[in-house]
Give the backbone structure.
Amino acid sequence: MSRRIALAALLAFTAVTPAAAEEVVVFAAASLKTALDAIAADFQKATGNTVTISYAGSNALAKQIIEGAPADIFVSAAVNWMDEVEKAGLVAPGTREDLLGNTLVLVAHGKDAKPVEIGSGFDLKALLGDDKLSMAMVDSVPAGQYGKASLENLGLWPSVEASVAQSENVRAALALVSSGEAPFGIVYASDAVADDNVSVVGTFPDDSHKPIIYPAVLLTGAKDAADKAFFEALSADASDATFKAEGFAVLK
């Protein structure tokens, strides 16, 4: 029986069979919030189970899981942080999969910002002037790490390093641009889709940073049928459509 057929059968059975509701605890990268909230809402409606999601930088979530935080599912925005959780023996065998991909973009406050061409000759410092460039923490949060790597590879980092305003996760970095506190920021394409107060003015070359991959796993603490069902739901056709609509690439 295929994953999708098995999932449909389980959801149908759960929806019509009286049973105590179960809770699924998900730790997920902050950039997933809009899409994953929608997927969780659909799952809860179909099953009667509860999905509780903690969003933060993948680095913070991985450390919490390793330190014993009770979670059933982890979706990271970077391979290296999932690797740390797996090294700690906390990934249920055979469940790790590369779920999604993303793109790194430069966003500006408002909807009418002038587009730019991002490359080795791009004068980002001139664009910023005396203003700040909003980024997630560049040494630990995946979006910040990807952004710093791209700026370094393009030869732009030395000129803008002092202008970078760092936030604890990518959605916090986006919020600074959305509010106008920073005129520009580096976020994922999916973040830009989620905010009507910013516009994408440029896309960073894919070869200027490591591929942006979101691995997902069931953790060893996942025991309930609802945990497994929600993990399967992340790869269902309806979820694929939601992720794509929010700017993600589905990797399968």
